DNA sequence: ATAAAATTGAACGGTTACGTTCAATTAAAA
DNA sequence: TTTTAATTGAACGTAACCGTTCAATTTTAT
């Protein structure tokens, strides 16, 4: 996100109480920013929520923009978790793909993720770097992992693809469809385990059909 | 969006000059809201941009929220255009689907559309009704049209589906993949005509393969 | 215990913005 | 032309918020 000021807030937070406060500040920032967006959130409210003085915030994070960026950074680390199921040998190709698709669905339909998506995208016009940073550390990393998994799957199954990344993209498209859109616009979607499995299965079968040799 | 106050601003705008001003206000509101989001946009700036007094805005649109909602309403009307190619008889199934997919790509990658998406989604937490309204008048209507087209296509081609809406959703998923995501996060994507056609073709062929009898 | 660093509360200046009021002016309808 | 509606500029009250300053206090390292 920022150019060189990595961990602007943490680099000299030796004191244990500082660590604790920084953590609380970031948590409060997340809550406020998620709830109101960047502009409508105030440092004062964040300070109050964190149980911390306003000056403390300014002493660790120089500006509101920076606090936001630092919060995003934390979220990204949290978000770039891997939901690729690796057990290709023990489980069989189709099973693994279905599990992976289910993990994707589970993760992407989470309310917290949706809210994050909303407010972060909105701030892209204000500061394009946050979008760039998020893409690199979230979706892009994820797609790489997925592509790798799919390549292994294709080796073991009777499948092929001339463009693994495009195939991975297609996988995502098949799994999510426009669920993403509905969620972002406030549609309440809580898939039951059965529905999730059904959707994952349908997507995987379609994907395998497309990539059959 | 609103319950009963349809066209709050226009219902007694008999004067021609009023009409003109209302139009300018809405245009200015769109520009400001698109550029800065809801919170960071000020009525004063909108008034200045529209070349209109602040009082005039408040006299036509009671509140900032309402001005935003009215602006969204106008955009939705503008956005719910139909990009389904209807010439099924004259053109052949595959061609029509490819054309439709190309239209989708063309429309959905437009910068204005992306910006609209960003700021509207961000305001969903503040007022869920705008999301609801948009879904009903944009994506939902679109998906219905698409499903209808696809059903006709399946009749004429050797295809089938047990769930036309799910098939339409899949169509969208295959065409867009995660382009939508990249665009929302600021990725510059300007597809050449060739790339667009290639992507559309790939998606349509995949879709037809999945739905073959 | 002592020195250094972190934190606090309170206040401040400056800015921005919402929404309102009002008397004066302009435009349009009859 | 008269009358009615719309528009304007300016000012107002109120509130929020950013970011800073400072002296006083608390926490931590040594």
Tell me what the structure shows.
2 copies of one chain form a homodimer. With 213 residues, chain A is mostly helical. Chain A folds into 2 domains: 16-66, Homeodomain-like (Arc Repressor Mutant, subunit A); 80-210, Tetracycline Repressor, domain 2, CATH 1.10.357.10. Chain A has helices at 16-36, 43-50, 54-60, 64-79, 88-91, 93-108, 111-122, 128-156, 164-176, 179-184, 193-210. In chain A, helix 6 crosses helix 11. The longest helix of chain A is centred in the middle third of the chain and has 29 residues, at 128-156. The A-B interface holds A 35-37, 39-40, 115, 117-122, 124-126, 128, 131-132, 134-135, 139, 143, 166, 169-170, 172-178, 180-182, 184-187, 202, 206, 209-210 and B 35-40, 115, 117-122, 124-126, 128, 131-132, 134-135, 139, 143, 166, 169-170, 172-178, 180-182, 184-187, 202, 206, 209-210. Chain A binds a DNA duplex (30 and 30 nucleotides) through helix 1 and helix 3.
Task: Characterize this entry briefly.
The structure is a homodimer of 213-residue chains. Chain A has 213 residues and is mostly helical. Chain A has eleven helices and no strands.
- The assigned CATH architecture of the largest domain in chain A is Orthogonal Bundle
Mean pLDDT of chain A: 90
- Give the termini distance of chain A in whole angstroms: 42 Å
Name of the CATH first level of the largest domain in chain A:
Mainly Alpha
Q: Name the beta content range of chain A.
A: under 5%
Output the structural class of chain A.
mainly alpha
Largest sheet: number of strands, sense, barrel closure of chain A:
none
Total number of β-strand segments of chain A?
0
Number of domains of chain A: 2
Q: Largest interface, per-chain counts?
A: A-B, 43 and 44 residues
Helix share, percent of chain A: over 70%
What shape does the CA trace of chain A take?
elongated
- Could you give the order of the helices and strands of chain A? HHHHHHHHHHH
């Amino acid at each position: 996100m920022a150019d060189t000021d990595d961990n602007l807030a943490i680099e000299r937070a030796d004191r244990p109480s500082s660590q604790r406060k920084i953590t609380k500040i970031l948590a409060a920032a997340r809550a406020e920013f998620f709830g109101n967006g960047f502009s409508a959130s105030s440092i004062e409210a964040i300070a109050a929520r964190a149980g911390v003085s306003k000056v403390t915030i300014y002493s660790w994070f120089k500006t509101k923009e920076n606090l936001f960026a630092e919060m995003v950074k934390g979220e990204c680390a949290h978000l770039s978790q891997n939901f690729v199921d690796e057990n290709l040998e023990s489980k069989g190709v189709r099973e693994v793909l279905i599990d992976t698709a289910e993990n994707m669905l589970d993760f992407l339909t989470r309310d917290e993720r949706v809210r994050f998506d909303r407010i972060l995208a909105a701030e892209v016009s204000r500061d394009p770097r946050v979008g760039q940073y998020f893409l690199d550390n979230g979706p892009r990393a994820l797609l790489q992992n997925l592509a790798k998994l799919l390549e292994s799957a294709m080796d073991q199954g009777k499948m092929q693809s001339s463009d693994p990344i495009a195939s991975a993209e297609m996988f995502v498209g098949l799994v999510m469809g426009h669920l993403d859109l509905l969620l972002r616009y406030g549609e309440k979607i809580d898939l039951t385990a059965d529905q999730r499995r059904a959707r994952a299965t349908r997507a995987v079968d379609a994907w395998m059909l497309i990539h059959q040799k």
